[in-house]
Design brief:
Blueprint lengths: L1 H30 L5 H11 L1 H18 L7 H30 L5 E3 L10 H8 L21 H8 L6 E3 L3 H14 L3 E6 L4 E7 L6 E10 L5 E9 L8 H14 L1
Antiparallel strand pairs: 1-6, 2-6, 3-4, 4-5, 5-6
Helix pairs in contact: 1-2, 1-3, 1-4, 3-4
């Protein structure tokens, strides 16, 4: 029994190290081009991640049972609890992500102006066109794959707070504040055109290196001041799980400071 206990605790130690390493490797491998995001996210996370977590949980439970085998030591119980906690936390994260994705429309293109949508310039379009499986940058007539509904309709229904940003500042000042906000948020400025009051940028996620493209447009308001519009569009993938809307809110809050 002592050999069995030692073996199970060894597996538990491996589980504690290898399970987080599996998911980190899946994400960073995609980011640095070792494999595509379809392998890292689609296979290693979505397809194989569940069995990896379930296997880790099984080992953790066995380690917890083995901890009762004499001689009983507190370290064995602690190791078992860590080996159980890691896969349970992973399962909880996966479940919560699925719940959020299910509660939101399966879209990846959000704009404060859905009638006169800001359109990306040549620099960002060149980067997008060089991306395999890139999402279309066309907005008119764009529908989601799940509900077969217009993206603009779904946005109005689920992201009602995403509207043009009204500023009392002159267009020139609003443009400068917008550019400062983009830099403060850590987005990479691809093209800034003060004469046109246009800013184009890209935000790259830390783990998978997913790129979302951003365009900000400043126009004079008919009543004085300025109207700031922003569009955030994911390069690849279906549902953005609310990320593009969150990005617009973060920009809006930063500009308002």
């Amino acid at each position: 029994m002592t050999k069995f206990k030692t073996f199970i605790q060894f597996l538990a130690m491996l589980s504690v190290v290898l399970i987080p390493l599996w998911f980190i490797t899946a994400a960073l491998g995609s980011k640095f081009g070792l494999w595509s995001w379809k392998v890292g996210l689609g296979k290693m996370i979505f397809s194989w991640g569940g069995p990896v977590l379930l296997g880790g949980l099984t080992i953790g439970l066995l380690a917890f049972a083995a901890a009762f085998i004499k001689p009983r030591k507190g370290a064995g119980f602690l190791l078992a609890m860590i080996a159980i906690t890691i896969p349970v936390a992973g399962m909880y994260k996966a479940g919560s992500t699925r719940a959020v994705a299910g509660s939101l429309p399966s879209i990846h293109d959000i704009s404060t102006d859905t009638q006169d949508v800001p359109m990306f310039g040549d620099k960002i379009m060149a980067q997008r066109n060089a991306t395999n499986g890139v999402n279309s940058a066309d907005y008119i007539g764009k529908t989601d794959k799940r509900e077969k509904e217009l993206v603009s309709v779904l946005q109005a229904r689920d992201y009602a707070d995403i509207r043009p940003i009204i500023s009392a500042d002159t267009p020139a000042l609003a443009y400068e504040k917008s550019l400062d906000a983009v830099k403060a948020l850590g987005w990479d400025v691809v093209d800034a055109r003060p004469a046109d009051k246009i800013i184009e940028a890209t935000d790259t996620t830390f783990w998978f290196g997913f790129k979302d493209d951003i365009i900000i447009r400043v126009r004079p308001s008919a009543g004085g001041g300025s109207v700031i519009d922003m569009r955030s569009l994911s390069r690849i993938g279906g549902s953005d799980i609310g990320k593009n809307a969150q990005r617009i809110r973060a920009f809006r809050d930063r500009v308002a400071q």
